[in-house]
Design brief:
The structure is a single chain. With 228 residues, the protein is α/β, with parallel strands linked by helices. It has one domain: P-loop containing nucleotide triphosphate hydrolases (Rossmann fold, 3-Layer(aba) Sandwich). The chain is built from nine helices and ten strands. The strands form two sheets. Strands 6-7-8-3-9-10 form a six-stranded mixed beta sheet, with helices on both faces. Strands 2-1-4-5 form a four-stranded antiparallel beta sheet. It is globular. The two termini are 32 Å apart. The structure holds adenosine-5'-triphosphate. Adenosine-5'-triphosphate binds next to α1. Belongs to the ABC transporter superfamily. One of its GO terms (cellular component) is ATP-binding cassette (ABC) transporter complex. This is ABC transporter ATP-binding protein. GO terms for molecular function: ATP binding; ATP hydrolysis activity; ATPase-coupled transmembrane transporter activity.
Length: 228
């Protein structure tokens, strides 16, 4: 099965700043839910933005859905197929009502008003917010905003989800709700998360970003192997 994403030897520095990525490599295959952890400022969001072409690395390769991506036009297709849920829902939601926020993308790609409204109902059901369509977005709780952000991304039927800190500032109950929603989705995912409880419940593999490279935080037990 060909990987959804394959990043090789990425190097990246913001202008006049020390390097953030210094040879980071990772692969995401269909069905996988990969967590990226690492200290604050390690470059996790930077890496995710490189994967969808919002930032360009100074060196390294990004292959998405079987094709190497270099130009803006290549990444426009990647962004259609890889739904990015931002760390801050206020960066994602900008319409007065939940229905308008969720319908924005589907209307933009040519769905009729009726189709878009059916999409709104479907994705709100999917995230457990049935009946929220006419709610005023800026009056929602932080947890509800986060779920609406996810719904607005699901409305575009992405092949892959990229989630930046999906449980940040959520209480235990809403975190459990996010866990249930994500576990019911078929999409492969890359999830930036500091939340070990969440990672245990959702992800299938974890990589840690440290000093610009991605490493397996729990490499197969070498002691056990060498003792054999
Ligand atoms: N636009 C920018 N210009 C200059 N430096 C930036 C910019 N964006 C991020 N940085 C810096 O790059 C480094 C990596 O940032 P990034 O947001 O990718 O880290 P992160 O691992 O996602 O952090 P956190 O866990 O705190 O969200 C940080 O030192 C940050 O201050």
């Amino acid at each position: 099965m060909s990987p959804c994403f394959e990043a090789t030897d990425l190097h990246f520095a913001y202008p006049h700043r020390p390097p953030v990525l210094a040879g980071a490599s990772m692969t995401l295959v269909p069905g996988e839910r990969l967590a990226i952890t690492g200290p604050n400022g390690a470059g996790k969001s930077t890496l995710m933005q490189i994967l969808v072409g919002l930032l360009r690395p100074q060196a390294g390769r990004v292959v998405a859905f079987g094709t190497e991506r270099r130009e803006e036009a290549d990444f426009a297709e990647v962004r259609r197929r890889a739904g990015y849920v931002f760390q801050d829902p206020d960066d994602q939601l900008f319409c007065p009502t939940v229905a308008e926020d969720i319908a924005f993308g589907p209307l933009n790609i040519g769905q009729s008003r009726d189709e878009a409204l059916r999409t709104v109902t479907r994705v709100l059901d999917q995230v457990g917010l049935t009946g929220f369509a006419d709610r005023v977005t800026h009056k929602l709780s932080g947890g509800e905003k986060r779920l609406v952000s996810l719904a607005s991304v699901l409305a575009m039927e992405p092949d892959v989800l990229l989630l930046d800190e999906p449980t940040n500032a959520l209480d235990e109950e809403t975190t459990d709700r996010m866990v249930t929603v994500l576990n019911a989705l078929p999409q492969a995912m890359i999830v930036i998360s500091h939340d070990a409880h969440f990672r245990r419940k959702v992800v299938t593999r974890t990589l840690r970003l440290r000093d610009g490279v991605l490493v397996d935080p729990q490499p197969t037990c070498r002691h056990a192997q060498s003792a054999e």
